[in-house]
Amino acid sequence: MTAPNKGESPEGAGLTREQGKTDDQDFAKAPSAAHALRVIEGERKAHEYLARLQASQVDPDELALIVSMLYGAVLRGFCAVITKALRGGAA
Description:
Elements: H1 17-54, H2 60-68, H3 72-86
Helix pairs in contact: 1-3
């Protein structure tokens, strides 16, 4: 095995230290992106529910069923939209 060039990782993988740092930063952002996608999913579910509610196509048990299946970031996104709608905000 040859000695790595200046700036290359010691493992000789061909990655410079700067590239490795960038990869680490991208990896660290991934959980935030996944979290945001789950919040957006919850918001989408709430908007769909509110649209059906406006069209008189839901019954009270449907809301309970939807909420019982949500958790974490999806639930937070759902509740944020429902709360805004209850306060008179745009759905």
